[in-house]
Amino acid sequence: MKPKIRPSKVFSFHSLLSIGGFMNQSFRVIFQAASGTYVAVSELTKSKGKTKSSRTVRHAVVAAVLALGSVSAMASESCDLSDGTSGIKNSDGICVIDVSQSPLPGIGARYAAGGGTASDANSVAIGTGARTTLGASGTTGTGVAVGLNSLASQASVAIGPVAIAGVNSVALGNSANAEDSSVAVGTLSIASGATSAAFGRGSHATGDSSVALGFGSVADRDNSVSVGTATAQRQITNLAAGTAATDAVNFGQLTSLSTTTATGLSTAQSNIVNNTNSIANLSTGLATTNNNVTINTTSLSTLSSQINSGGVGLVQVAGAGLTVGALAGGTSVDFTGTAGLRTLTGVQAGSLAAGSTEAVNGAQLSTSNSNITTNTTNISALTTRMGTAESNINDLADQIGSGTVGLVQQAAAGANVALTVGANTDGTEVNFAGTRGARTLSGVADGVAASDAATFGQLTTTNNNVAALDGRVGIAETNITAINTTLADLGAGLNGAVVYNADKSAVALGGVNGTLINNLAAGLVGAGSMQAVNGGQLFSMKADLDAQLQNIIDNADAAIGIIGDRLDGLTGVVGEQGDKLNDLDDRVGTIETGIADGTIGGGGGGVNPAGNAQVGVGADASGKNSSAIGSGAVASGENSTAVGANSSATAKDSTALGADSKATGSNSVAIGAGSVADRDNSVSFGSAGNERQLTNIADGTAPTDAVNKRQLDGAIAGVNDRIDRLDTRVDEMGAMSSAQAQMAMSTAGLLGNNRLGVGIGAQNGQSALALGYQRVYGQGTRTLSFGGAASTRGTVSFGAGAGFAW
């Protein structure tokens, strides 16, 4: 018996991707057979029971870590883990913790666990072999892949083992596959057409902008909606009557068309019967006339009988229904009349059972597009919620990068605004030294104030000036030395007298150890000056040089101190960020420890241990190869799919799309909030009393395609036109029969062997002319006659006869 884990706190799908840091890495979760619970223990503690399958243990660990809110304790003694988390000891003395007590911080802009690979920022990959692909050049991936070997491209979501989602697409379910900008929901569902959608296990949408609804449905034509296959059709139930040209029509509208057609045929039959009765009363005594009338009457009676029974004409009765052009060629029925398109009303909802070729009405497919849009929006909202926490972390990183937060900040926007380092903290030094020693501070502007840092360029200029001054002082010292030497030589040669040398280029003083020159006036210090300088001038120059050097040294020390203080602040920030990264790494490691084979348990959703996709609080995909998406969604039928809050697909191969939708019939599809599909092999867009219109339906072309109101109006117009032409034809026949009768009556009383008669007739706006001739032979024992009639519309009839008497 599997242990029951009862969470005390419900997590959203985003929470599953944000859990971290609630358990120290020195602890693990094991199963206690005695209490039937999963508990957190030291990683050195052995599990009691549940040793048959390591995979089962890994699944249980995931469920315990991600979804366990409160595990029944066997004793009331409290305990604490090393990280400070409180719990209660059970009968085995093991500390049982409630993970719902700890906060669940976000995990960052990129996350991969359980063997998954997240290739780009803002992407998530969970499960063995799960991976996300990089976006286009210069873009962000933002893909989410959850499940064994699942693959999510840019801005896409793939949930389920081997689920594959192309760019801007959604694939939910075991082996679901959605190409770019498409949606595939259900085990083995495939949406390969551009902007296509497949809902239900094994459904295929291969046509561009096509939609396949229900288990095994195939939509292989562009811009089409399929609720079955060529050999397995479904009924569309709860379809409201279509009102626009592209609306689907229901069976009620088709029934109304049948009633209207039957009424028109009945009227035509009545007119024919009236004409027959009138003709039967004409000049029955005239043999030729009787013969002609009998022929006409028989023909009209036969035509009346055939029309009445629906045995002739394009519109015929076949059993309990009507056929239109059953024996004629052509691939369409045109209902258009002289006033334009006609509305075909009263069409009953057509059967969508296997083999059905019945037309459907506007109410049967009214809101599929809006419901699909709603489902896509709900799934997109799930992705938006996942990105919220990641966006917050990215915002913080952007603020640090832009200098609006942290120890190093930019006071305001602009090119000439100063940066501050630790402006709101104390400290008298900035240390730039790192683990590899001192660092070079580059990009420093020349200092202008007493407390500004001096640059290397400024120091170089000063050093050059000092070097130049040293050179000048050296020259002066050399000159003085030469003077002293000359004076000494002079003193030695002239007993202390000051004398020139031979060419008068030097003066020698007579002192043995040198001679002081006192009372020497200050010489000119300038370019080209050859005057001697005195000691006062040299002292003044040295004092000025010492002051300048000291000022440079002081400024450099102050600048280095400020830079050191700033570097100390930066070191603190870097250290703090390093601590956060280490903590994040620990938490990611904890999650990776609890995830295996791409399976996730918990109240928020993901892939359950059976490998079925279930997303949403309380979602339950318990049926084999099923998928449940939405809060409280239930997919308990085999190969079933439930999408939407509180939706349920309980029958085999059933699909429910929309909040509170229910698919209880086998191989049924319920589309839209509150829709109910309780008949096998049916598609429902509403419920009794809450029907919907199915709009924007293209003209049907195949026998099992739905027809729209435009096609129905065209069919009605064609039937009406046919009835109108039949009425006109009957009126023509009546006018011609009346003309022939009048022609015969006009010659009935004539004597002679040659008789010529003329007659005219009219009926309901139609008129005709009849002409006849009779020859009498053998004293009235034999007659020969012939005649004809023509209507104003060009219809012509002709007849001939003979009579004998003896």
From TrEMBL:
Residues 117-130, 166-179, 180-203, 205-229, 621-647, 649-675 form the Trimeric autotransporter adhesin YadA-like head domain. CDD domains: LbR_YadA-like (cd12820). GO terms for biological process: protein transport. It is an enzyme of class 6 (ligase). Residues 627-665 are annotated as: Disordered. One of its GO terms (molecular function) is alanine-tRNA ligase activity. Residues 638-653 have a biased composition (Polar residues). Its main location: membrane. Belongs to the autotransporter-2 (AT-2) (TC 1.B.40) family. This is YadA-like protein.
